[in-house]
Amino acid sequence: MFFSPHSSSVKQSLWQDWRADVACVFARDPAARGVSEVLLAYPGVHAVLLHRVSHRLWLADWKLTARLTAAFGRWLTNVDIHPGATIGKRFFIDHGACVVIGETAEIGNDVTLYHGVTLGGTTWNKAKRHPTLGNNVLIGAGAKVLGAITLGDNVRVGANSVVVKDVPACCTVIGIPGRIIQQKGTKIQNSHGIDLDHHLVPDPMGRAINCLIERLDKLEANQEKFVVMESENCDGCEADAVCHSEGTVMLKQAAGGR
């Protein structure tokens, strides 16, 4: 199920959201050593905490104050999150540099973004124009997810990919434009937490090249079977007329023979 801002009638307090945002860091960043370090030295966390405030101001129709709060957060953290963006629980931006999240973006629970990620729009129309991310989505460094598309639960997006189409749940996407290289069935979320090994993805180009090399080897092996080689005592052979027929000569020449 995708995260929906209207799916629960009970809204969590700002304090509860903040605590969850800080606590989730320890499950996804082995470098985190303590709460004080996370609060003081993690710009991605600062950006999320400030967005919780600006988003509430936006919903309360304090639009200018919300935008000013978001602008301050951008200046402080180098992370640009529009106050209108809807973000679920335990959202984590690792490194927190050059991340952009548009106004109509919707992000589910337990989502992780790395530096350089853009959740952008592809139209100037004042409508839904930014992506919707399901729960447990992980987007690698430098990836771009563009347009009013939907990424299902447990989707992984490889670094520097550009995703412009919907992605079903439990799939891995890489490339420009993004292609699904791992089908449904493998979830990011497991009993030990979120799987951050987003670099362990198949290499479709390398696999295709290997297949071509294997095919070429087979073709060369088959070609050797059709090469007609002249024997040393061909002059005394009764099949001389057959060996030197026009069709046989052309076959020899095509196969690289004399």
UniProtKB/TrEMBL annotation:
<keyword id="KW-0677">Repeat</keyword>
<keyword id="KW-0028">Amino-acid biosynthesis</keyword>
<dbReference type="InterPro" id="IPR005881">
    <property type="entry name" value="Ser_O-AcTrfase"/>
</dbReference>
<keyword id="KW-0808">Transferase</keyword>
<dbReference type="Pfam" id="PF00132">
    <property type="entry name" value="Hexapep"/>
</dbReference>
<dbReference type="InterPro" id="IPR042122">
    <property type="entry name" value="Ser_AcTrfase_N_sf"/>
</dbReference>
<dbReference type="InterPro" id="IPR011004">
    <property type="entry name" value="Trimer_LpxA-like_sf"/>
</dbReference>
<dbReference type="GO" id="GO:0006535">
    <property type="term" value="P:cysteine biosynthetic process from serine"/>
</dbReference>
<dbReference type="InterPro" id="IPR045304">
    <property type="entry name" value="LbH_SAT"/>
</dbReference>
<comment type="similarity">
    <text>Belongs to the transferase hexapeptide repeat family.</text>
</comment>
<dbReference type="InterPro" id="IPR001451">
    <property type="entry name" value="Hexapep"/>
</dbReference>
<keyword id="KW-0012">Acyltransferase</keyword>
<dbReference type="InterPro" id="IPR018357">
    <property type="entry name" value="Hexapep_transf_CS"/>
</dbReference>
<dbReference type="GO" id="GO:0005737">
    <property type="term" value="C:cytoplasm"/>
</dbReference>
<protein>
    <recommendedName>
        <fullName>serine O-acetyltransferase</fullName>
        <ecNumber>2.3.1.30</ecNumber>
    </recommendedName>
</protein>
<dbReference type="GO" id="GO:0009001">
    <property type="term" value="F:serine O-acetyltransferase activity"/>
</dbReference>
<dbReference type="InterPro" id="IPR053376">
    <property type="entry name" value="Serine_acetyltransferase"/>
</dbReference>
